[in-house]
Amino acid sequence: MPASPAPPLSSLLERRLVIVTGKGGTGKTTVCAALALAAAQRGLRVLVAEVARSAQVPHLLDPNPPDVGYEAREVLPGIRAMRIDPFSALAEYIGLQLGLRNLVERFLRSAAFRQLMDASPGWRELITLGKIWHLERMRDGDRPRHDLIVVDAPATGHGVSFLEVPRVVLSAVRGGPLRHHTEAVEALLEDSARTTLLPVARAEELPARETAQLVDAVRARLSIPIDRVVVNAVHPAPFPPHLADLDERLARLPQGLPLGALPEPATLAACARYLRARHELNRGYVVQIARSTGLPLVCLPYLRDGLRGRADVEALGRKLLEEPRAAA
Amino acid sequence: MPQRTPGAVKIDVCVGCGGVGKTTVAAALALQVARSGKRTLVLTIDPAHRLADALGMAELGSEPEPIPRAVLTRLGVPAHGSLSALMLDMKRTFDDLVERFAESADARDRILGNPIYQHVSDALAGSVEYSAMEKVYELATSLDFEHIVVDTPPSQHALDFLEAPQRLLEFLDSRLVHVLIHPAFAAGRFGFRLFHRGTQRVLHMIERLSGMGFLEDVSEFLLSIEGMAEGFRTRAESVRRLLLGPDASFLLVTTPELESARQALEFLDRLEAFRVPLDTVVANRVRTWPGRGEVPAEGIERGTLQGLRDALAAQEGPDFPAEQAARAAAEAAEGYAALVRRDARALHALQIRSVEAGRDWVTIPELPGDVRDLEGLDRIGRCLVARSAGEETVAG
Predict the structure, then answer these.
(1) The pTM is what?
(2) Which homologous superfamily is A11-240+294-321 in?
(3) pLDDT tens digits, residue range A104-130?
(4) Measuring CA to CA, which residue among A4, A67, A1, A65 is closest to residue A33?
(5) Whether ipTM exceeds 0.85
(6) Which of B155, B214, B265, B294 would you mutate first to test chain A, the one with the most A CBs within 10 A?
(7) Which residues contact B285 (CB under 8 A, 6 or more apart)?
(8) Would you state the torsion angle of the CA atoms of residues B268, B272, B278, B283, taken in this order, to the nearest 10 degrees?
(9) Does any CB of chain A come closer than 8 Å to the CB of residue B310?
């Protein structure tokens, strides 16, 4: 046991299950990696479950990560990662339910079954959520196997459809084990003591609007707890306040003035104008997201050089655990 | 370049993942086509009012809405050209398909009222994409327009709109569906031997998990849509021929964001596998170097900041922190140069592949703010025009 007291846990780490959601390109996967790393550094045993064609999070944590598939594997001390493949999850589920593992494998490979599955909506989402429920229940002795499960939810084009599937199933399936299990999944999703939905947004027009729609839809149609929004890639102010209009001053310099090794004034002004305009645009949408969702925000900075390694992920993780700022 | 059918409707299809600016590129392209004197239509799925605002319209409907003549004149569209816009209502599109292909009014009501249908219609993979292409076919065959620009729904899977009908048809043809639809036949002594025992086991398995009733709903749903299959099949084939034919061309739109550049490469693979007529790859919102020549390769050689400091001090007076400002300006230039280099790196593989395959590569520089007016559309349109000008040169 370390001598120094552990730092206080962020309120984000009080849940068992954090479902990270957002459109492709918002940096959802980066947020998952940053959250997992921050939690593990505070002594939690973390599982990252990705719902994607290939696991991305391990690559953000380690330049040479182990191959991660359906079986969870340790990526860093305290962090295990897995990829929830719907067909594997289905085989596991049906095998558990019917106790016919070998027979089940044969069915799953049959053309008729594949065709049915390819054309059937919803089952991928349902079985994925079922697997997450199963992961949450896993125990090592009397304590949970994972203190925190971070789910990198699919970048869906349809907002909350991933999370809405249990409701749809409950309205279509009237009885039997499937209904019973779906009710258990729904209960986990709606339990604010165990679960939170973490939307990742960007401070730009479309992502800002989509985040507001997502939050509205969750409030109107689902009961999944949601207590903050992460706004990723916010351009910081490029100049100190007393030089905020530096781009305009640069533009007034005599054109073509030789500045030694530096680009000419018009070029300097254009660069400064871009960075200032991006910052102002982002700031405007941060305010808009706060207003339209009514939720506190956690803003992560735009990284000009991209993610260069684990140190950058760690820095984002520290930001992520800061208590969110209340709506402006 | 394939020979175009004289007098046929020309179709441009903008594809790409969500959030790359497809809608804006489609609108800008349509505006440029209208300027060349064509009767033009832009079909969008963007539910935002942004595009309508930019085009000077209060709202877009699900039927082609002509843009007022006064607005067109201001945009430089000649008298014989026109521009109409249409916004596809995603919720309605699949219902429309059912209306069109249902065998009877009774069958239609049965389908629309089935609880399974109500859940699958908006979730059925690719149905929205397919329905959008249906609409394009309808408009292309109406001959009201000479040129149609299509903005496709953002999709994870590049070609859902081409592949979805096939998937649906294969499913309807499958043995499992026949068993579900004709349980009496399957259970009958004669038919029983005909179908695979495995299929029956799958059904038992589903029944055990889902309880009674669910399979009955599914079966009824499949029975009611079975009658649609023939009309659907014929139409799907026509849509396919139109989009892969000589009068269609595709534009792949991407941005230099790592994720969208990566997805664009995947799109490219799929489009090539399908032999889709992809003419142009558009890199949107690219940060380009504003100075003369190339972006400095490795950080800006700051040397001494004295020249800039003196120039700022002379302009701003003695109280101005010229030294600090000069340093900040140099850092900003360096920071922006890093972004320019980053974008070029992100797009490099895509650009090489596109150019090697003989496709046009169009770069649209990022504006500091949002594109929300005609000026923005015009600027993007001019970048795209370079492409059509090239085409005419080749044709001439």
Answers:
(1) 0.82
(2) P-loop containing nucleotide triphosphate hydrolases (3.40.50.300)
(3) 677 777 766 776 676 666 788 889 999
(4) A65
(5) no
(6) B214
(7) B20, B21, B255, B256, B364, B365, B366
(8) 10
(9) no
